[in-house]
């Protein structure tokens, strides 16, 4: 079991965890992820390693509570334990000195954009960061990104903070201004990553996306995380998670990610009902 060292909300339903995992912290590289299981009966979920501290022996993950397991995880606090955490998994980001590199994070995708921006800067790139959220409170890791970005542009869908518009709009604005861009990494919701690929394709800019298909064992054995890239089938857990954005079949990825939505909703509803029943019993005991 792995002890939670720190747990705090950094945005509504978005929680940062520092977890004891010395072996993972020692070997982890930008772009890799872990698979977490909250308890013995829990499902295995993939989560990006946002940061690590080899001396402390900890890894940092950022979790958005959207389904049964992520909401369960976000109920835990410092001092609690999770059943197990496996990693580092996946291929590390291909980091080199491209020249001008843009690291784009949409929502919790910034948890991946951050370590990659750091690695790109350390490799000698001029780094531009673009991070987005629905509103100001959903823009995360801004201060952390500032440490490694030569330019950072926060964006919000509603204009409550920073640039009013999507991250893709800001990227297009920079390109319309004639800004030189040699490399783009985009991480976020599937429609956002597809939109970034559509923006950079006419310019021939090398663009990479970190895919988030459904994963089960994260070893390539089950085939659950199949993705189609350049007409060929790959497993995101072992062949990725990062791929050439201009070759990804986003339509196929979207359909596969929606396959289990009814089951996911049912699991979440049952979990919420269970929590409500427990709360009512505790209220009666206290009365």
Word description of this protein:
The protein has 287 residues and is an alpha/beta fold. It has 2 domains: 2-89, Elongation Factor Tu (Ef-tu), domain 3; 100-257, Rossmann fold (3-Layer(aba) Sandwich). The chain has 9 helices and 16 strands. The chain has helices spanning 22-27, 68-73, 110-122, 142-146, 167-176, 190-200, 236-239, 250-257, 261-286, and strands spanning 2-11, 14-20, 33-37, 45-53, 58-64, 81-82, 84-89, 100-106, 126-133, 151-156, 163-164, 183-187, 206-210, 226-229, 232-235, 242-244. It has a 7-stranded antiparallel sheet with strand order 6-1-2-5-4-3-7. Strands 11-10-9-8-12-13-16 form a 7-stranded mixed sheet, sandwiched between helices. Strands 14-15 form a two-stranded antiparallel sheet. Strand 4 and strand 5 form a beta hairpin. Helix 5 runs parallel beside helix 6. The chain is globular, with a radius of gyration of 19 Å. The two termini are 35 Å apart.
